[in-house]
Design a protein that fits this description.
The protein is α+β, with helices and mostly antiparallel strands and 99 residues long. 37% of the residues lie in helices and 16% in strands. It has two domains: 30 residues, no CATH class; 45 residues, no CATH class. This is Rna-directed dna polymerase from mobile element jockey-like.
Length: 99
């Protein structure tokens, strides 16, 4: 299916483009898109996940940090330790970050 409209309707922002170098033996060359030089990055977010040279360590650490923050909010904000209250909160707010 083709998109309708002029080519001017679809703007491409070259300033938002970055190069993510992967692999151990990558020379790290300077890349250009037209006349604009592209910056490099060591980590980028893609669909909510951090991509870091295909390592999961940074992604896991970020997810654990977010889950711990949510758990801290539950502990500070809820005075009751009743299972009927804490378990649904944990299931809704903390567990999705860990999965």
């Amino acid at each position: 299916m083709a998109l309708k409209g002029n080519k001017d309707d679809f703007k491409f922002n070259k300033d938002n483009c970055k190069v993510l170098y992967l692999g151990k033996h990558n020379p790290g060359l300077q890349h250009r898109l037209g006349s604009t030089g592209l910056g490099s990055s060591s980590v980028e977010k893609d669909l909510g996940d951090l991509v870091d040279k295909l390592k999961m360590s940074e992604q896991c650490a970020a997810a654990a940090k977010k889950a711990n923050r949510m758990l801290g909010c539950i502990n500070k904000g809820i005075t009751s330790r009743d299972k009927d209250i804490v378990i649904p909160l944990y299931s809704a707010l903390v567990r999705p970050h860990l999965e």
